[in-house]
# Entry
Amino acid sequence: MKTQNIMIVGVGGQGTLLASRVLGNLLMNGGFDVKVSEVHGMSQRGGSVVTYVRFGDKVYSPLIDEGGADIIVSFELLEAARWLKFLAPGGKIITNTQRIDPMPVITGAAQYPAELAAKIASSGVEIDAFDALAFASVAGSSKAVNIVLMGRLSRYFDFPDAAWDKALTEVVPPKFIELNKKAFELGKKQ
# Structure
């Protein structure tokens, strides 16, 4: 199998690491060689973060080059735009439409770009943009955006629901498992 490359991008504190652990666990349980990178960026300060997840028969490096990501899962629209150059031709972006203002916007030094999802789509990129925060809130916690996004990602993989359920159960703390299973289902089905 050709190595597949997924980038998970967001802002510090959004749960990108947990999402990458769920995905990595799913893929390892599926018998793939999996490499998951460390989180890069200023995650402790609300800055941009990225995790690379690569899987296939044999994977030699956890890093993804520009133009090499088959899928980018973005927790925030501006992060989807920031990492767009890493998307491979024919790749997909799955993104939360939530807006988190970066420091230059907060201080008034810059403006948040308008109509980002439409601009990304107009560049010829396949984009699946939706309000993951709303689904997370319905599930019971705004912090479940990461698992809502994993639910949406599951639409693009040929793994049975039981495999995703096992990955969630193995990674998510038991006291949050039911909430996260609900978040996953909302992301997948809505």
In short: The chain has a mean pLDDT of 92.
